[in-house]
Specification:
The structure is a single chain. The protein is built from 14 helices and no strands. With 283 residues, it is an all-alpha fold. The C terminus is likely disordered.
């Protein structure tokens, strides 16, 4: 019965919010492409064919081939897996780290809050992309390093949101009651503060997926991506040298990036409107 109620409530939310509905539909399309990539892809994305820089519509290569003879459509389909993995993992690291740090700062306050706030200000003053560039250049361009580095450099927005939520929630009656009953501070924070203040973080983290995908594409475009995996950024990087005669290589990969970024922006903005009804009221 509860499952039916949750499903009905979710359907009502989707019917009411067109942005969220469209974002979810596009996300389902992306997930299907990633999951069924071996079935959908017409070719092996790593296989080299004789036709080099063959244009779209070439027999056997709907979107053409790149400079090494690889099928562009197959690369883009398999690149969906890589980009979604990078976005979700990096955004999850950012969300968890930002939630914990921001919750501690806002709930404990005092010197701890001041110390953490100064630490956050340092990250906010440092251009995150250049920090990612330095770390990747020092430690290598392995895909795992890239995901971790992007996550570790993009947590400040979530931390500031969670800090504001914790400062507000710690004055509520249910938190005061828990303190009066002798619950420890960490127990109150993880059982009451974070669960009740997590909703804006969910919307922010969803949007961070887009930022992570763009960061990886930017790194790959500069030649700092993982050359051992197929990603949209790597396709764009490889295709830029063929732009005068092979525009399709970078163009179709760029369209895939835009499509995915738009998807997560719609979901994030839609969730933000659902979780913050005042936004819809103002519009």
């Amino acid at each position: 019965m509860k499952k039916d109620n949750v499903f009905q409530a979710a359907m009502r939310v989707l019917k009411k919010n067109s942005q969220l509905r469209m974002g979810v539909i596009l996300l389902i399309v992306l997930l299907c492409i990633a999951f069924f990539a071996p079935i959908i892809a017409p070719c092996d994305p790593y296989k080299l064919y004789d036709a080099l820089v063959a244009g779209p519509g070439t027999p056997g290569h709907i979107l053409g081939t790149d400079g090494l003879g690889r099928d562009v459509l197959s690369e883009i389909i398999y690149g969906t897996r890589t980009s979604l993995m990078i976005g979700v993992v990096a955004a999850s690291i950012s969300g968890i780290l930002g939630t914990c740090i921001g919750g501690i700062a806002g709930f404990f306050g005092g010197k701890i809050d001041r110390l953490i706030s100064e630490f956050m200000n340092f990250f906010l003053m440092t251009p995150s992309f250049f920090l990612i560039l330095i770390i990747v250049a020092l430690f290598g361009s392995n895909i795992m390093y890239i995901m971790i580095v992007i996550g570790l450099t993009s947590w400040t927005g979530n931390a500031r949101l969670m800090r504001a939520q914790a400062i507000s929630l710690k004055e509520r009656t249910f938190v005061k009651s828990a303190q009066a009953m002798g619950e420890s501070r960490f127990s109150i924070m993880f059982r009451h503060i974070i669960p009740n203040g997590i909703f804006p973080i969910i919307a922010q983290t969803t949007m961070n997926v887009s930022s992570a995908i763009l960061s990886e594409a930017g790194l790959s475009f500069l030649g700092l991506g993982d050359p051992n995996v197929v990603s949209w950024g790597q396709i764009i990087y490889h295709g830029k040298q063929y732009m005068p005669k092979g525009w399709w290589i970078s163009t179709f990969a760029g369209v895939a990036v835009v499509f995915t970024v738009l998807t997560f922006f719609l979901i994030g903005d839609g969730l933000n409107r659902v979780l913050s009804p005042k936004m819809d009221a103002n519009n």
